[in-house]
């Protein structure tokens, strides 16, 4: 099978890139030929580890994005000025994204994708994978400019109009998002969402499209299998803590560490939380680190005893990609859920320790399970890609 795979996220250090690289590698493991069309980012934006992890048999063609690269370089230079705070750039970035660029800051790549000439190449499927949503717009443009007559498969890492990230957008932007989301979905032959919760919600929202909506589980990219004999018990959380409540866990750790018979104390490490931390000063068992590369994150997994997942406070159907990366380890996974839907989704895998994220968390039973967990092989790149291929060929 010959596949044209289109995504704006391939080699950047972000969750969508990890998901795409692992799925593309899985497709190769299932004897597919894959050509990837992605964006030509400045070299300092590419993650060397992700680049090295991409199967060597994959052909990659890049769309020029000179305006984005210039803007990124300018913002980075100004950001390095210590007189200006990060909050200023967050406000400026959001302002630019909302009022100037649509669907997002990679908009120039849609027009520039017309330079992708594949008329003389034969493909069985074209797959576009967001985020960013520009991936689908690029696919539409390539289909049109090359007069393709093959099934179009869309993968949505997150929904669009129901994404909690747009709740503060202005009315016009929300209207444009809703209109374009439905139009894109109608044009697809099959649509995949990363969680059952999101897929079911979109089916209910667009009943006329429900028969072509499926779930594509995210796979882990690399396996981590290690046992530690640390002087402390290491809990680790990776990623943003925005809209997440850590305090029931923090109170539970404090309570555990204060118990006189627990001489081996818990240390809680947070990675990539930037400036979102508040009210944690003075907690000596908490260590805060900047954003790491995925290669560095894998090293964190090796040295960790308990990996922490924290549900979103706003009852979102989106399941953060880190839970699938956790499935590729033999570490205890502590999942703090906010609603029954998330609990029901996660407990079916019989791999996570589920606790309601409300009152102080009792950690005694969690500690007892350290060094007794396993890698969830059903989420390997090869198996996830195999199931994906079955679904895209179903009822063909």
Please tell me about this protein's structure.
The protein is an alpha/beta fold and 396 residues long. Helices cover 37% and strands 17% of the residues. It is built from 14 helices and 13 strands. It has helices at 15-29, 48-53, 66-79, 86-99, 108-112, 134-145, 171-187, 196-205, 247-258, 294-303, 322-327, 340-347, 364-368, 381-393; strands spanning 2-7, 33-40, 59-64, 125-130, 152-156, 190-193, 213-215, 233-238, 266-271, 286-289, 306-310, 332-337, 353-356. Strands 3-2-1-4-5-6-7 form a 7-stranded parallel β-sheet, sandwiched between helices. A 6-stranded parallel β-sheet has the order 10-9-8-11-12-13, with helices on both faces. Strand 1, helix 1 and strand 2 (33-40) form a beta-alpha-beta unit. Helix 1 packs across helix 14 (381-393). It is globular, with a radius of gyration of 22 Å. The mean pLDDT is 90.
Average pLDDT confidence is: 90
Name the helix and strand elements from N-terminus to C-terminus, one letter apiece. Answer: EHEHEHHHEHEHEHEEHEEHEHEHEHH
- The structure class reads alpha/beta
The Rg value, from CA coordinates, equals 22 Å
**Estimated helix fraction:** 25-40%
Number of strands: 13
Give the termini distance in whole angstroms: 14 Å
Low-confidence stretches: none
Strand content: 15-25%
In quaternary terms, these chains amount to: single chain
For the largest sheet, list the strands in their spatial order: 3-2-1-4-5-6-7
- Largest beta-sheet details: 7 strands, parallel
Count helical runs.
14
Q: What is the overall shape?
A: globular
